[in-house]
């Protein structure tokens, strides 16, 4: 298991938590607002096949892909400044695949906090 070699640094974990939290307020909200209209547009496309719902559906889907690409490019490992995952959402990463620094505490969220 490669995760056993991961380095524990509370500063990296804290910096990552700050990044993920600010992302949730920004691009995370944008992604949710883009995902929601996909459902009615998809139903519309299915019930009334015409060019308008198809264009709307793919327009929003394209914006969503774009938002995800921006997301990956901006959510970087606080230690080596690269996207911490090879694919998928960086937000769910537990450790960075490049420098093997933990991004979330392997001992639980409360570890290292002053009570
Ligand atoms: Zn890293």
Write a brief structural summary:
The chain is mainly alpha-helical and 115 residues long. The protein has helices at residues 10-25, 27-35, 38-47, 51-74.
Report what the structure shows:
The chain has helices at residues 10-25, 27-35, 38-47, 51-74. With 115 residues, the chain is an all-alpha fold. The protein has four helices and no strands. The structure holds zinc ion. Residues 77, 79-80, 82, 84, 96, 98-99, 101 line the site of zinc ion.
Task: Sum up the overall morphology in one term.
Answer: elongated
Rg, Å, rounded: 18 Å
Span between termini: 32 Å
Order of helices and strands: HHHH
Which structural class should the secondary elements be placed in? mainly alpha
The residue ranges in which pLDDT falls below 50 over 5 or more consecutive positions are none
Bound small-molecule species: zinc ion
DSSP strand count: 0
Please write out the topology:
Layout lengths: L9 H16 L1 H9 L2 H10 L3 H24 L41
Zinc ion binds next to loops.
Structure keywords:
single chain, mainly alpha, 51% helix, 4 helices, 115 residues
